Amino acid sequence: MRKMMTAMVLAGAVLVSACNTVSGVGKDVSSAGDAVAGAADKHK
């Protein structure tokens, strides 16, 4: 579980760093949040 969360955080950091606009950052943060929520639901 810890490895998965670390991977998710790193993936989120990569997505955020790839953005050039504030709008893009919002989209990336939203998609990272959705991924984390999906992983959390999967491991209930």
From TrEMBL:
An annotated GO cellular component: membrane
InterPro entries: Entericidin
Family the UniProt entry places it in: Belongs to the EcnA/EcnB lipoprotein family.
Top-level taxon of the source organism: Bacteria
GO BP annotation list: response to toxic substance
Keywords recorded for this protein, A-Z: Cell membrane, Lipoprotein, Membrane, Palmitate, Signal
Name of the protein: Entericidin EcnAB
Protein source organism: Sphingomonas endophytica
Residues in the signal sequence: 1-18
Keyword Lipoprotein appears in the UniProt entry: yes
The keyword Membrane is assigned to this record: yes
